[in-house]
Amino acid sequence: MKSILKVNWDSNLPIYAISQYELQKEGIHCLLLDVDGTLVNRKSNIIPKAVKNWIIESKKLFSLYLISNNPSKKRISKIAKELNLRYKCNASKPSKKVTLSAIKEIGSEPKNTAIIGDRIFTDIIVGNRCNIKTILVKRLSRDGLPIKFNLTLTIEKLISHFIK
Fold first, then answer.
1. CA 164: distance to chain centroid?
2. pLDDT given for residue 148 in this prediction
3. In a domain, 1, yes or no
4. 119 inside domain
5. In what order do the strands lie in the sheet containing 113-117?
6. Among residues 29, 61, 54, which one has the least CA distance to residue 132?
7. 162: DSSP letter
């Protein structure tokens, strides 16, 4: 039985350092993107230039869709509008319902879909529950750089070693 906590690709990188070529080699056509921590710092509405550039390049290669647990439609819609992407907020990850509906809306197959996020207990678990590839990235600081130490992720990784 596959663990719901298994990360397909623990990148140890911020999202903007993920290779689109490597994703294409894996047969990925659709990327579901977490927002808070992954694309922007949780306490900022400013999308880092490196993230914007990565999104622009990725749109040429993949269908992109924002999936956020953040309940603020105002916040997530503003970010989605700036990036010109479809979105779902208040997704209740790791619940599968919203994620599966996004995959269906895009018209993708799970085998060609990946989710990119900064949390094991939300993004990675929902990806595994939906049978899609999972990519764990470093959380972003306010200046758009990867944070040096992520206590939440450290705790999630520690706990995940004891859960099968």
1. 23
2. 82
3. no
4. yes
5. 9-10, 133-136, 113-117, 30-33, 63-67, 86-88
6. 29
7. T
pTM, to two decimals: 0.91
Q: Which helix (H) or strand (E) holds 83?
A: helix 73-83
Per-residue pLDDT reduced to its tens digit, 28-39:
999 999 999 999
| Closest listed residue to residue 101, CA positions, set 88, 118, 115 | 88
Within a domain: 2: no
Q: Measuring CA to CA, how many Å separate 100 from each of 51, 65, 107, 135, 147?
A: 25, 12, 11, 17, 30
Number of domains in the chain: 1
Tens digit of each residue's pLDDT (9 = 90 or more) over 55-96 = 999 999 999 999 999 999 999 999 999 999 999 999 999 999
Domain residues for the domain of 82 are 9-160
Query: For residue 77, what is the domain's CATH number?
Result: 3.40.50.1000
- Among 132, 103, 138, 140, smallest CA distance to 115 is for 132
Please tell me the distance from the alpha carbon of residue 38 to that of residue 129, in angstroms, as a whole number. Answer: 20
Instruction: Determine the Cα–Cα distance for residues 132 and 103; give it in Å rounded to an integer.
Output: 10
Q: Which residue has the tokens 């200046």?
A: 143
DSSP codes joined into one string, 115-146: EEES-IIIIIHHHHHTT-EEEE-PPB-TTSSB
